[in-house]
Description:
Oligomer: single chain
Number of helices: 9
Number of domains: 1
Largest sheet: 8 strands, mixed
Amino acid sequence: MRSLGRTIILAGAVCAALSVAAYAASKRYWPGPVLTAEGKSQALCESVPNRIFVATTVGSECIAYWTTKGNEQRRQAVFFIDSDLPPVADQAAFQEHMHKTEDGIEKLMQKWADKLHVRYVYLARPGLHGSSGNHKDRMKARETMILGGAAKLLEDRLGVDSIALAGQSRGSTIAASLLTLKLHGVNCAVLGSGAFEIVNLEYDVRAKGHQPVDKAALRKIMCDPSAHIDGIEPDATRRIFVIGDREDPKAAFPQQTHFVESLKTAGNHAVQIEVEAYHHHGAARYAVPTAGACLNGLPDNKIVTAVAKMQQEHKQLRVSDSVEDDAEGGPTAQAPVTLDPEDPNTTE
């Protein structure tokens, strides 16, 4: 096993906390710290299957994960990180949301695992889906370091040599930050509906709320992927796909475009794919299969074409009742054939 030395050092300047000032006055429910004992004890944490103890220079957590069934012989996997907890009223609503999203993303990943013959691994963020920690402290450098450590340890535990990072919403923001950790064998990154210029986003939110704000001060307390592109080791063979909706109310499309262009300027292989996401923000239905197709080596142009075809299928399914719901709360098509590199319907 590759030694972590039980520490993970964030490459480049260490990002600090993402402010939650925009939510300070809200009466939304927060689950608070969970599984505190497990987050401090490897023995206690790993006494339960599908949990891994991660210790870093900024503390430790017990991270839950789950994997799709089948394809265990493959030494490649997609590591998926999901979005923030949306506003919920109480604990009952929180539990309902956790169950719904877990069930939805598990079905989505298994569907594409079966179709593309790829392993998928869900990394549960601290405080959610069985991981220890406090989700209210989300988006801090600590969260990135913990999840980076979990990914490194799971590569060894699962026998994985190369991975694709994938995310939805703020999960994509974290996945982008993970690129600065120089994780072993990252061949692809697929970032769905991500916010990559957090400072500008927070500045706009505070300005609209007439809160005193200074961008220089925000840069000192926020983890902003766009500010740390120089920490991403240039690699022309590693492909980064940024998937977004031009009308996204939570992650500005122009910021995503600028992030892609900045990645290219720094010597990275980056492609932007425009989609019509669920409620203009939910892009997991595209990010999950795109990551698998990328890991399988499907060329960029075929991936772009396949995603366009998937969009048309989803539009047609909106009037159908014979579909399941995905983690975003919308209809999920039966896995189309267009992302299978061996399928004759995969065209230019």
